[in-house]
Amino acid sequence: MTRHVHRMFRPPAEKDSVLLRVADGCPHNSCAFCGMYREVRYRVHSLGEIQNSIALAAARNPHARRVFLADGDALALPETLLHHILALLGRAFPRLARVTCYASGHSMSRLTDTALRSLRAARLHTLYMGLESGSEAVLRYMGKRDRAAEMLVACQRVQSLGLSMSVMVLLGAGGVAASGEHVRESVKVVNAMQPRILSCLRLVPVPGTPLWDRVGSGRFELLSEAGAVRELRDFLAGLTLGATVFRADHSSNSLPVAGRLPADKARLLEELREALDAGIFDEHGPGSQSML
Question: Taking the model in full, what pTM does it have?
Fold first, then answer.
């Protein structure tokens, strides 16, 4: 059995879930800002490996109700393998309520309505997708293979079939030059998506990535700490969401805020306004940043 020593990533909301690695790395691995899988060769695990992993996980936590499938874009696995995995999980964990994983516009688009309904019936519940930006220009610059239009259509379709979408937007993805476009276009796309969950993370350069090199050479100007908070404020102000859990409480964010939209929108905006008016954020540098 292969031993996996590289780090396993999962969304913050999955901290209490059983983490089941079904692949190594990411099938895309092209995003300029992402160092998560930079040195990991992509490989789908065999059914035998996955069976062994499930058996070990079930022995440790037989009463688990949630399972997260790792690594990057687990929805890109062959459809038949996904069904086998969900069936095995259902047998191994009698109390299993939901299975979640990372997804992309491409991996969602390749599956038919029938396939998605079948996966949902087998307890696939929430798909985590990095929109990053609604701006096609920003996405191209950042090496994102999915287009905003593709992700929008895929998200709408998936949700219409009963799955939940957790969408991530990357504050500062447009840098200083494209901040306005990044916010404006991201607002448009997210409002059209109406995701069940929306998270905002701040762009933090990671050593060894193309973005790190661009920042170091002056080809990309990062937003200041205050600029990133203003971008969050402007993005939130433009949202017209009907029933969304909103989170901007990742460790990369200088001011953690979270709530439900639209109910908590006014409160969240007031918290951001008060913090900005207090002048507590660095106007000329990144302040304290973390992607841990």
Answer: 0.94
